[in-house]
UniProtKB/TrEMBL annotation:
This is Carbamoyltransferase. The active site is at 35, 53. Keywords: Hydrolase, Ligase, Metal-binding, Transferase, Zinc, Zinc-finger. Signal peptide: none annotated.
C-alpha cells in the first residue's frame, strides 16, 4: 500500500506494517493438492508463514501487507485445485512472527477430525499424457497419479491425509519421486500416492496354475503382466483385476462364449453387465449419448452411466461388436470409461497389439457377497469364477464399488452412489447431534451425521450374507475414523427381521436407538437432500417392493403426508396376498395370479401367467390363497409391476431384483402412438384405523383392461405403456386429493420404483402441469441406497436431538 502526496510534491512510498492472519479452510481440502496450492499462492504474493493439515482442515498462517492478504483470501477459494471443495474460510488476526519465506509444516493430528476426505478421482489429462509418452519416466506406469487424480478414500487409514496414514506408507519414495514430492513447483508436490516404476506398487499376474501363486511378488525381468492379461482376455479368459476399490471380473465384451461363461459362473441370470470402453465413440452406435451423459462419462468421477440403447443400432465401419449376452433384454447399457492408468493399459495404448476394445467389468464377488479387496481372499473366493488374477501389492483400505448413474429430466439420478462420490457429505437442512443410521438390508448404505453434514458410506451390499455384515462393520469403523463422528444416537428400520436393525440393536452401548418407518425414511431422504427445513410437510409418494408397515403388513404403494416429525397415511394400493414371500418375488407369475384372484378374474388357461405356472404349483397356490396360508398382505407397487409384467407375457421369472419391472419398462419404451383408451385405477375411501389410508387405489379395473387387451390382440408394448400411464395418472389424482384436503403443494417421488425413468418423468411432468413442486432424488438413490439419510433426520427429530 502507498500513500500518495499532493500533486507536484515528491511521492514517497510509506511502508505498511505487516499483519498476520491464521486462516482455517474446511471442506475437501486434504489429498487434493491444497497445501501446495496455498504454498504457491503465498510465495507468488510475497507472503510469509506456513501451512499444515489438521483434523479441522487446512490451517495457514500468512503474514504481509493487509491489501496482499486480502488478495490472498479472494484467490484462496476462487482458484482452488480441481478436486477441492471449499466450504468455509475462517480468519483470525494474530501477532506477527517475522517469518522469512513460506513453508509446509508436518501435519498435526491431535483433536477430532473435522475435515473431508476426497473421493477417488479418475486419471487426469496430465497424467494420461505421461502414461502415453514413451519419453516420460512414468510411461506405462499403472499407478501414476498426482494431486489432481488417483486414489484417496480407498487408501486413507486416518486423518489428516498424509502418506503415512494411507496404504502407500509401505512404499518408500525413490530419490526422484522424493524430489518431486518436495518441489513446490511440481504437480506432485505433497501428492500422497506418488509412485513410479522404481518405487511404486507392482503388478503381478497369477493363473490357475498353483505354481504361479508361490512365485515371488515381483514379475520376472522383461515380463509384462498387462500385455499378458490383454492376451488372455483376447483368448476368451475371465480375469480378476484389482482396481481402486476392489476386484473386477473382466472379459472380452464381444466374445459370446466368454460373456456367457462369466454369466454362468457368477450365476448372474440375465442381470446386465457393466461395460468399459476406451472412448465414447466405441459405443456411439449402440446407445444415445447426450451432453449430460457425456459429461458424466468423461468427468473426474467416471461412474457407470446407464445409456438408453438405440432401437436399430447401425455400427460404423470398424466399430467393435458387442455380445448379446452382455445386457439381454435391458433397455439400457451400463457404460464407463477408463478411470485408472491400469484400465487404459488394459484397453491398449497407441501402438499396442490388438486386444479387446470393449470389456465387461463386473464386481469381483460371489453373488450376494461384498466386492473382494484382499488379495488372498480374491484367489480363494474367486477361484471358481476367474481364470487368472491381475493383482498388485497396494492394499485397498475400504471396498468401494463403481457408482451407477443415469440422466433423467436432464439431471443425474443415482442407482448406486459409491466410488467417486463417497465419502463426500450431503448437507443437512436441520443440524443433528452425532448419529449413525444403519440403512436397510438391500443395497445397504449406512450414514454418519453431525451438525449440518451427513456422510453416506460406499455401497455395502445385501445384508443377508455374513461377509457383507463384516464388511458393514469394517466400513463403519473406517468412516468414523475419517469423519471424526462418534455417534450418540442410532437409527434403524422398523422391520424386526432386518439384519441392519439387529446390528444397531447389538451395538447401542447405552445409546438411544430410534426405529424409523421405511417409507417415512424414503420421503425424509428426498426432503433432506432438497434442503427442506422444519415445518414444510410434503405429499410423499413412496413406491417400492418391500417395506415394513405400521400394521405389520408389507407396504410399498404409499402416499404419506409427511414431515421430519411424523406422517399420516393418506393413500395406499389395495392389499393383495403375497403368497410365499421371496418365492413369489422370484416368480412374478405367482404375483400375477394373486392379483388376478384379488380382482375376481378367472385363471383362464390362455393368460400368460397361468400358462407359465406349472399345474401342480398352480393347484397348491390356489389352495394357499383360498386358505390364506403364508400370505402376508402387501400394498407394494413393485409387486404390481411384477404382476403386470407377467400378465402381459413379458417376464415370468426374475433372476435379479426388479427384472420384471425393468423388462416391462423396456417394452413400454418401444410402443408407438396409442390410439386406444387407457387404464384407470379405482379410488375408494379407506377403512378406519391407526394405519388405514384415506384413499385406497384398487388395481382391479387396470387388470381387467389388461386382460381385455390381451384377448383383443393388443401389442404388448402398448399394454406396458398404458400401464405406466395409468400409474402416473393415479399419482396425479392422489396428489390432487391431498392438495384439496391438506393444502400441500410439494410432492416427493421416492422409492425404488422411481428408478424407472419412464414412470418418474411422466409422473413429474403431470404433477408440474398441475402446479405442484416436484422433488426427485438427485444426491442419493431413490432406492434403499438413500434410506439411511432419511433415517438420520427422522431419528434426530424423534429423539429430540436436533440442535436448536
Amino acid at each position: 500500500m502507498t500513500i500518495r502526496q499532493a500533486e507536484g510534491s515528491t511521492a514517497t512510498a510509506l511502508p505498511t506494517a505487516a499483519v498476520r492472519r491464521r486462516i482455517t479452510v474446511r471442506g475437501v481440502v486434504q489429498g487434493v493438492g491444497f497445501r501446495p496450492f496455498v504454498h504457491t499462492l503465498a510465495t507468488e504474493l510475497g507472503l510469509t508463514g506456513h501451512v499444515t493439515n489438521t483434523g479441522e482442515g487446512v490451517v495457514a498462517e500468512v503474514e504481509g501487507a493487509p491489501a496482499t492478504l486480502a488478495r490472498f483470501g479472494e484467490r484462496l477459494s476462487g482458484e482452488a485445485p480441481p478436486l477441492a471443495v471449499v466450504e468455509t474460510v475462517d480468519g483470525q488476526d494474530i501477532a506477527p512472527a517475522g517469518d522469512t519465506g513460506f513453508r509446509i509444516l508436518p501435519s498435526r493430528a491431535h483433536g477430532p477430525s473435522r475435515t473431508l476426505v476426497a473421493p477417488d478421482a479418475a486419471t487426469c489429462a496430465a497424467c494420461l499424457a505421461e502414461l502415453t509418452d514413451p519419453a516420460d519416466r512414468r510411461h506405462r506406469h499403472p499407478f501414476l497419479s498426482c494431486t489432481h487424480c488417483g486414489p484417496r478414500f480407498t487408501i486413507v487409514t486416518a486423518i489428516p491425509y498424509d502418506r503415512a496414514l494411507t496404504t502407500m506408507d509401505r512404499f518408500p519414495m525413490c530419490p526422484r519421486c522424493a524430489r518431486e514430492y518436495a518441489d513446490p513447483g511440481d504437480r506432485r508436490f505433497h501428492a500422497q500416492p506418488i509412485a513410479c516404476h522404481d518405487c511404486g506398487p507392482r503388478l503381478r499376474l497369477l493363473t490357475a496354475d498353483p505354481a504361479d501363486r508361490t512365485r515371488p511378488p515381483l514379475p520376472a525381468p522383461g515380463a509384462d503382466p498387462v500385455a499378458d492379461t490383454r492376451r488372455l482376455l483376447a483368448e476368451g479368459a475371465i480375469v480378476a483385476v484389482k482396481g481402486l476399490g476392489g476386484y473386477h471380473l473382466v472379459c472380452d465384451a464381444s466374445d459370446d462364449t466368454a460373456v456367457a461363461l462369466l454369466r454362468h459362473r457368477k450365476a448372474r441370470g440375465d442381470k446386465p453387465f457393466a461395460l468399459m470402453a476406451r472412448h465414447i465413440d466405441e459405443v456411439a452406435h449402440l446407445v444415445r449419448v447426450g451432453a449430460e451423459e457425456r459429461a458424466l462419462l468423461t468427468g473426474p468421477v467416471r461412474p457407470i452411466v446407464l445409456l438408453r440403447r438405440t432401437t436399430h443400432p447401425a455400427p460404423a465401419p470398424g466399430a467393435p461388436a458387442l455380445s448379446d449376452a452382455v445386457a439381454p433384454g435391458s433397455p439400457d447399457l451400463g457404460v464407463m470409461l477408463p478411470y485408472t492408468p491400469l484400465h487404459h493399459l488394459l484397453l491398449g495404448l497407441p501402438g499396442d497389439s490388438p486386444g479387446p476394445r470393449l470389456l465387461v467389468m463386473t464386481s469381483g464377488n460371489v453373488a450376494g457377497e461384498p466386492i473382494v479387496t484382499d488379495d488372498d481372499e480374491a484367489v480363494r473366493r474367486l477361484a471358481h469364477l476367474a481364470d487368472a488374477w491381475l493383482t498388485h501389492d497396494r492394499p485397498i483400505r475400504i471396498p468401494c464399488d463403481d457408482s451407477v448413474v443415469r440422466i433423467s429430466d436432464g439431471e443425474p439420478l443415482f442407482v448406486r452412489r459409491s466410488r467417486g462420490y463417497a465419502p463426500f457429505p450431503v448437507p443437512l437442512p436441520v443440524p443433528v447431534r452425532p448419529a449413525l443410521a444403519t440403512g436397510g438390508d438391500l443395497k445397504n448404505v449406512f450414514c454418519l451425521a453431525e451438525g449440518h453434514r451427513a456422510w453416506l458410506s460406499a455401497h455395502i451390499g445385501d445384508m443377508d450374507d455374513v461377509a457383507t455384515q463384516f464388511a458393514f462393520e469394517r466400513a463403519e469403523e473406517h468412516l468414523e475414523t475419517v469423519t471424526g463422528v462418534r455417534p450418540q444416537l442410532l437409527a434403524a428400520d422398523r422391520h424386526p427381521g432386518y439384519r441392519s436393525g439387529r446390528w444397531a440393536q447389538c451395538h447401542t452401548d447405552g445409546r438411544p436407538l430410534v426405529r424409523v418407518q421405511h417409507h417415512h425414511a424414503h420421503i425424509a431422504s428426498a426432503m433432506a437432500e432438497h434442503g427442506l427445513r422444519d415445518g414444510h410437510p410434503v405429499i410423499g409418494v413412496a413406491f417400492d417392493g418391500t417395506g415394513y408397515g405400521d400394521d405389520h403388513t408389507i407396504w410399498g404403494g404409499e402416499i404419506l403426508l409427511a414431515d421430519y416429525d411424523g406422517y399420516r397415511r393418506f393413500g395406499q394400493l389395495a392389499y393383495v396376498p403375497l403368497p410365499g414371500g421371496d418365492t413369489t418375488v422370484r416368480r412374478p407369475y405367482r404375483m400375477a395370479l394373486a392379483h388376478l384372484r384379488a380382482a375376481g378374474i378367472d385363471w383362464a388357461a390362455e393368460l400368460p401367467p397361468v400358462a407359465a405356472c406349472p399345474p401342480d404349483e398352480r393347484r397348491l397356490l390356489a389352495r394357499q390363497l383360498e386358505r390364506d396360508l403364508n400370505c402376508v398382505p402387501t400394498s407394494s407397487m413393485g409387486r404390481l409391476f411384477d404382476a403386470v409384467s407377467s400378465l402381459a407375457g413379458v417376464c415370468h421369472r426374475a433372476g435379479y431384483e426388479a427384472q420384471a419391472a425393468i423388462a416391462l419398462e423396456a417394452a413400454a419404451l418401444t410402443a408407438g402412438e396409442d390410439p386406444g383408451p387407457g387404464y384407470t385405477f379405482a379410488l375408494r375411501a379407506g377403512r378406519t384405523g391407526p394405519a388405514a389410508a384415506d384413499l385406497v387405489a384398487d388395481p382391479a379395473p387396470v387388470l381387467t383392461a389388461v386382460v381385455g387387451d390381451l384377448r383383443a390382440g393388443t401389442a404388448v408394448p402398448l399394454i406396458a405403456a398404458r400401464f405406466h400411464t395409468a400409474v402416473a395418472d393415479l399419482v396425479r389424482r392422489w396428489c390432487a386429493s391431498a392438495r384439496e384436503r391438506a393444502g400441500l403443494t410439494t410432492v416427493a417421488l421416492t422409492g425404488g420404483v422411481f428408478a424407472n425413468t419412464l414412470l418418474a418423468e411422466t409422473t413429474a411432468r403431470l404433477l408440474r402441469e398441475d402446479g405442484f413442486t416436484v422433488l426427485r432424488h438427485r444426491r442419493v438413490p431413490p432406492n434403499d441406497g438413500g434410506l439411511a439419510l432419511g433415517q438420520i433426520v427422522v431419528a434426530a427429530r424423534t429423539a429430540g436431538a436436533a440442535v436448536r
